Amino acid sequence: MVVLLSGDDASGFQVMQVVAPAGLDISGLGIEVTVGAGEGLPFEGVLRLAFPSPGFTPCTWLTTVSRDDLIERAAVLSSRKLSEIDDALRLAEQAQGRTPATIAKLSEIRDALRRGELG
């Protein structure tokens, strides 16, 4: 499932995939906007945006699709939710420097992945 972020233009529609919540604190690394039953969707999920930083290429789950890729409308997001998404997109466009706290958080996540505690 995706959230449509832009109208149709020559290159298609900009969309973002709805994914499962990270399940851990990602503050300083990215932001998640919750979407789900409150918006009329069949399941709970998030739109996740990682903050760019030097030497790090974030995955934002943003892509462009054609009209043929879109099957059906699942729900219509409120103007409040759309504003929350716009705010998150603006934040994600601003380069973030790595702080000792974000470096420590990345190390903590990496170690948890190695121990099989995540995903």
Describe this structure in words.
- The chain has 119 residues and is α+β, with helices and mostly antiparallel strands.
- It is globular, with a radius of gyration of 16 Å.
- The chain has helices at 79-93, 100-114, and strands at 2-4, 13-17, 30-35, 45-50, 62-65.
- Helix content is 25%, strand content 20%.
- Strand 1 (2-4) and strand 2 form a beta hairpin.
- It starts with a strand and ends in a 5-residue tail after the last helix.
- It has a three-stranded antiparallel sheet with strand order 1-2-5, with no helix packed on it. Strands 3-4 form a two-stranded antiparallel sheet.
Please outline the helices and strands.
Layout: E1 2-4, E2 13-17, E3 30-35, E4 45-50, E5 62-65, H1 79-93, H2 100-114
Short description:
The protein is α+β, with helices and mostly antiparallel strands. Helices cover 25% and strands 20% of the residues.
List the main descriptive attributes of the protein structure presented here.
three-stranded antiparallel β-sheet; 2 helices; 119 residues; 5 strands; globular; 20% strand; Plasmid_toxin/cell-grow_inhib; alpha+beta
H-E order: EEEEEHH
Strand content range: 15-25%
Which percent bin holds the helix content? 25-40%
Mean residue pLDDT: 83
Q: Report the major sheet.
A: 3 strands, antiparallel
Figure out the total of helices: 2
Number of strands: 5
Taken together, the total number of domains comes to 1
The end-to-end span amounts to 20 Å
InterPro entries: Plasmid_toxin/cell-grow_inhib (IPR011067)
